[in-house]
Amino acid sequence: VDFNANKLYVKVLPFSLLPFLSQLANWVQTTMTRFRPCIDLHAGAVKQIVGGTLDSSSEALKTNYVSKHPSSYYAQLYKDNDLTGAHVIMLGPGNDQASKEALQAWPGRLQVGGGISDKNAQEWIDAGAEKVIITSFLFPEGKFSQPRLDSVLKSLGGDKNKLVIDLSCRRRGDESWFVAMNKWQTITDMEVNSESIKALEPYCSEFLIHAADNEGLQKGIDEKLVERLAQWCSIPVTYAGGGRNLEDLEAVKRLSAGKVDLTIGSALDCFGGSGVKFDDCVAWNRKQKAESV
């Protein structure tokens, strides 16, 4: 290894360096805001839904977009553009097959969530998921259960690198957020704050946090929440909810000092939106990566 003109040249790569380089790659990811895409599944179809309306009543459900493409189309699109860290979310029953089709299109590189428990977590890893995302199972009757979290991690062989904890939340007051479960309709007893984040970090590799009150509205991100997540989290965290355009990506980068990633859904042209082009988000990621080297 030579250092010359502030550049790192690797001449020989002994196996002893591999763990270090893996840690270095993870550090770069946690300090560089990225656009992360999603595949939201509802009733077996790829959809974009206003999060706050996601309940069992079809009359109350507000849908922004229903895709004519299967889930595998989007998985292939993300693969072709090297958009790692994308999540597949199953919103309710009837989505297992569509989720598996996405995983088969890009095995080992997509995260999957929705109905995950200690009984099926490893099954989804075996089906091709890189990581599983879990929320509702951890909150029986709306109360956080440490034994359930321990059980999920045990089912994954104790490998926290396979686990993402979803702390999607709803705002209560000016600067307080509480985890929401059951398709974001039930408010739990867990406040999203420094204490809860620190308590959960040892059990997972990253967090996914939807601001459910902003989800699907395309009216802007919850800037205060993004700021707090950057302050509270020492592992990768992805924020979703209200993202509209490249300016919101720049805002997340500025507010979080590059520590928080952003998912944009309904505003993307590939989901029928007019706020931002998918190709422009891909280009934005490439620019951030180039600047971080």
Automatic annotation (TrEMBL):
Its EC number is 5.3.1.16. It comes from the Eukaryota. One of its GO terms (biological process) is L-tryptophan biosynthetic process. CDD domains: HisA_HisF. The keyword Membrane does not apply. It is found in: Cytoplasm. Keywords: Amino-acid biosynthesis, Cytoplasm, Histidine biosynthesis, Isomerase. Pfam families: His_biosynth (PF00977). It is an enzyme of class 5 (isomerase). GO terms for cellular component: cytoplasm. One of its GO terms (molecular function) is 1-(5-phosphoribosyl)-5-[(5-phosphoribosylamino)methylideneamino]imidazole-4-carboxamide isomerase activity. It catalyses: 1-(5-phospho-beta-D-ribosyl)-5-[(5-phospho-beta-D-ribosylamino)methylideneamino]imidazole-4-carboxamide = 5-[(5-phospho-1-deoxy-D-ribulos-1-ylimino)methylamino]-1-(5-phospho-beta-D-ribosyl)imidazole-4-carboxamide. Pathway: Amino-acid biosynthesis; L-histidine biosynthesis; L-histidine from 5-phospho-alpha-D-ribose 1-diphosphate: step 4/9. SUPFAM superfamilies: Ribulose-phoshate binding barrel (SSF51366). InterPro entries: Aldolase_TIM, His6/HISN3, His_biosynth, Isoase_HisA-like, RibuloseP-bd_barrel. Its main location: cytoplasm. Belongs to the HisA/HisF family. This is 1-(5-phosphoribosyl)-5-[(5-phosphoribosylamino)methylideneamino] imidazole-4-carboxamide isomerase. The lineage of its organism: Eukaryota, Fungi, Dikarya, Ascomycota, Pezizomycotina.
